[in-house]
Amino acid sequence: MRRDELLFLILWSSGYIGAKYGLPHAGTFTLLFWRYALLLVLVGMIVTWRNEWQRPTMQAFTLGFLGHFVWLVVILKAFEYGISAGAAALIAAMQPALTALLAPIILSERTTIMQWVGIGLGFAGVATFVLADQALTGSQLWVYLLPAIATISLTTLTLSERRQSQIIKSELPIFTSLFWQGFITAALLLPLGYWFEGLHVNWNGEIVFAIGWLGIVVSIMAYAIMLQLIRTRTATRVSALQFFVPPTTMIIAWIVFQESLTILGLVGLAITSSGFYLMHKGQETTPSE
Questions:
Q1: Is 212 within 8 Å of 38 (Cβ atoms)?
Q2: CA distance 158 to 99
Q3: For residues 40 and 183, is the Cβ–Cβ distance under 8 A?
Q4: Comparing C-alpha atoms, which of 44, 129, 52, 135 is closest to residue 91?
Q5: In this predicted model, what pLDDT tens digit does every residue of 110-166 receive, in sequence order?
Q6: Under a CB-based contact definition with an 8 Å cutoff, are residues 43 and 178 in contact?
Q7: Is the pTM of this model over 0.85?
Q8: Most CB contacts within 10 A, which of 62, 102, 153, 169?
Q9: Is residue 289 in some structural domain?
Q10: How many CA atoms lie within 13 A of 237 on its CB side?
Q11: In degrees rounded to 5, what are phi and psi of residue 26?
Q12: Assigned domain for 32 exists
């Protein structure tokens, strides 16, 4: 793995850690609102400097709603109910598996036998890991459906874009699109944060660090590195990096939160990782149309 890929992996995975770090000091809607308020200021400055202001498109708003708002709200709500950062990352990482499962039905895409075996192993491993995590954290099993909603949200976005024969990117300039994605997300978060949480924040060094980390390091720096990887690496290699997010998140969560794994949890992670490997190899051998 190259250095820029490793850096992306660490920064992207740290988003789960930063969110969990800030939640004791602000509710889900409020924490996310301030994250996107910071993003809008910084990205707005970048767009102004690059002179790339354009009107928003429906595609940018759809990306914002499914890829930011829904995704992050359900992940953070899962944290509020006590599941581990590693469990959330592992469940969310099943998005390529769910996409591969539904693509033959919705898009008439071919799936190899190796991919089918990988999908089966992936879901079996996640189920095993969830049972282990539930026994460790005491969270109710239904809470693990919240990050599954995030997986469904991104899968819906991916399949929708594929059906239109488009790559998941806007025709807008990159940072202009990111601004409008953040705009719709913040616009949805503001009333929810006010109604349900009073926009209350226990301002201290930890919450300031969490908002800054999420708004700058994860939302802008990691995003920029990802775009650079998309330009310089194959799509298969970039998508394969997502399979390393769960173990990376678990390592960081162990360092920061002392989150531990049981033997059963390690078994589930190993099974899922084997499934990811087979899905990746199966994708490489899928004949092109």
A1: yes
A2: 7
A3: yes
A4: 129
A5: 778 888 888 889 889 899 999 998 888 888 999 999 999 999 998 888 777 666 554
A6: yes
A7: yes
A8: 153
A9: no
A10: 14
A11: -160, 150
A12: yes
